[in-house]
Amino acid sequence: MTCININMGKGQTSMSQGFYKRRATCNFSKQIMTAFALWMVLLPIAASKFVLNLTPKDPMARVGDSLVLTCKASGCAGDVMFTWASLLDRSLYGKTETNGTVSLQIFNQLGIRHINKVLCKATCTTKGEKAQTSTKVNVYALPKDPTISRSDLLTEGQESNLTCTVPDVYPAERLIIEWLLGDEVLLKQDEHLEVEPVTSVLKYRPTAQNIGQNVTCRATLDIGIDKRTRETVASMTVQYSPRNITISENTQVNIGDSFTLTCRAEGNPEPTVLWRKLDQDGRSVVAGEGATLLVEEASWSHGGEYECVAHNVVGNRTAHMTVNVQGPPEKPVIYRSPSGELKAGDSVTITCQSESGRVALRQLTGSQGAELQSNQGHTSITVQSLTATDSGLYECQATNPYGKQTSFLNFTVLDELYTENQRTTETITSMTVQYSPRNITISENTQVNIGDSFTLTCRAEGNPEPTVLWRKLDQDGRSVVAGEGATLLVEEASWSHGGEYECVAHNVVGNRTAHMTVNVRDKSVNPKTVIIPAVCFVSMTAAAATLMRFLRRAKNTSSYELAMTV
Questions:
Q1: Where in the chain is the domain with CATH 2.60.40.10?
Q2: Does CATH number 3.30.465.10 belong to domain 435-521?
Q3: Residue 142, SS3?
Q4: Domain 147-236 - what CATH class?
Q5: Where can this protein be found (predicted)?
Q6: I want to staple 512 with a disulfide (CB 3.0 to 4.6 A). Which of 160, 221, 437, 506 is the partner?
């Protein structure tokens, strides 16, 4: 060993002292030479040692693939005997091929059963030396895409369970499952997934905005050296109740015409449409089914409020509209209760009704047509303690802006005090055939000067003999009683007497009507003031024509002669 002395000159600085210090640095060449010599002695001994090399080391192979383990011996100049075994005391499920110093353990169609600790043992026959080495065989499996299922149909606003199932995966403890809505991660699960098949449940409350969006189940197997990923994408189908309902606007229709109503709504499942008509009491009657309701011939009963109900398994929604049927009113109905024989002191209720206008109830005989009651669509009166004066003809008139219709009711109040003659007469009379008025005749349309008198007549056949009632109709279609009897006399005509007159001939069996018109004119318009000037004009024109012919004749004969005829 050679030592090199280094002297530090005066004035040089030492970290520990400010004086000269001698340091020695040794040369290690001697130690190096000694180590080299030892290596040269041991090298032949190491080169001749019997050893095994097993590859690949701790492999991770995919289920279904093949795997080959190679065990190679070195340090043996002669034959080598190989033995393969499991350190876990189980079968290897493989086959062995040996060639000289190399032995192969071959695994085909790897499965879970091939997970093992594999031992390769060998003996060098020439030296009698033995060696062994081992490796761990691992497998993984992610052979199929996940499947997405649900416990029930997805319904807006209701929590549902979506299940992702990953079959035949190994090792499950290394599996990561992610749920995504579009690109948004809803759930990431990497624990408690050891169950086979592996499942993950997503609890989700969908909305209508989720309709058509994609939900993804992504399964990733993290095996360290690599990550294997499979995923399945499903489009969301969400049930929701009807919405955005549209219905026909309120409409007017003439009596007898056709009309169509439509109603549509969005929803999943597609909504079914039911039509209902609401009556005045708020009750409803089914009018039809389907998005379109067709009425081929409108009647008064078709007027009113309609309700469209769009419904599916999730819920329902309604919309309303109104149909207004217009036209002349239907013939009103008039009836009494009780309907049997009426006697003095009894009570009776008379009802007048119509679906298509305002109704008015009048007593035409005995009260000069006074209005008893009026109302929209329905009216009635009750008469207590009937007397003979309550007998006679009652009128029910329905009126609306498009016209009017009239019906009549006739009844008699019987007196309980009958003489024997009255009873006999009544019995005989009852055998006579009664019939309603017929062959009614009425005055023709007439013109009358203002201030003059005029007479109208109306007669009809019938049994009992018909009673005649005169009524005058105003411009609004309303009527006023003008008189009773076959003859109506007006002593001094005024402008109010002009217009349409109605003659009503009635008896207990029925009635019949006839109409005529009175035209009242101004007396100052005299026909003579028009006729006389016209006659004069015609006479002068004729005389002028005669004179012209006479002058032409005189010119031709150079003379003329004026003749006068007396």
A1: 51-140, 147-236, 243-323, 333-414, 435-521
A2: no
A3: coil
A4: mainly beta
A5: Membrane
A6: 437
Distance between CA atoms of residues 541 and 361, nearest Å: 66
Could you report the per-residue pLDDT of 392-425, keeping only the tens digit for each? Answer: 888 899 998 888 889 999 988 886 553 344 444 3
* Token duo for residue 16: 């520990």
* Domain 333-414 fold: Immunoglobulin-like (2.60.40)
Q: What is the pLDDT of residues 161-171, one digit of tens each?
A: 999 999 888 88
Q: Which CATH class is domain 243-323?
A: mainly beta
Closest CA to 342 of 384, 396, 394: 384
Residue type for position 559: S
Cα separation, 118 vs 96, whole angstroms: 12
Is the N-terminal amide bond of 329 cis, ω within 30° of 0? no
How many other CB atoms are there within 10 angstroms of residue 412's CB atom?
A: 12
Sign of the CA dihedral 211, 212, 213, 219?
A: positive
Residue 309, token pair as written in the block: 């109900």
In b/e form, how buried is each residue of 497-522, taking b as 16+ CB within 10 angstroms?
bbebbbbbbbbbebbbbbebebebee
C-alpha atoms less than 13 angstroms from C-alpha of 369 in its C-beta half-sphere: 14
Phi/psi at 41 (5° precision) = -75, -40
